Amino acid sequence: MSELFREIDSELRQDKARALLAKYGPRALIFSVITVVAVVIGVYLRDQEIARQSAATQELVKLVGEGPIPQD
User: Fold this and answer.
1) Mean pLDDT for the chain?
2) For 11-15, 35-39, 46-50, which range has the lowest pLDDT when averaged over its residues?
3) What is the tens place of the pLDDT at every residue in 49-68?
4) Distance CA 54, CA 46 (A)
């Protein structure tokens, strides 16, 4: 008898999970894709900024020279 209740409980859980997946699955997938795209864009923009700053630093070193930087 206990096994029957466990089986029924398991089937009810599966039915609830299927219903939640059918209801919220597409939204969760879209949200996940948007999140991944936003992170990729953020990393790309950060790398571009680092490259820009590196180029500016190299240009400054060329202009100032490679001597020691004076302390204030």
Assistant:
1) 90
2) 11-15
3) 999 999 999 998 888 876 66
4) 12
- What are the tokens at 72? 């204030």
Q: What is the largest CA-CA distance in the chain?
A: 87
Q: What span, in angstroms and rounded, lies between the C-alpha atoms of 9 and 37?
A: 39
Q: Which two tokens stand for residue 28?
A: 């969760």
Q: How far is CA 26 from CA 14, 38, 40, 48, in A?
A: 18, 18, 21, 33
What DSSP line would sit under 48-68, residue for residue? HHHHHHHHHHHHHHHHH-SSP
Q: Classify 69 in phi/psi space as left (phi over 0), alpha (psi -120 to 50) or beta.
A: beta
Alpha carbons 6 and 10: distance in angstroms, whole number: 6
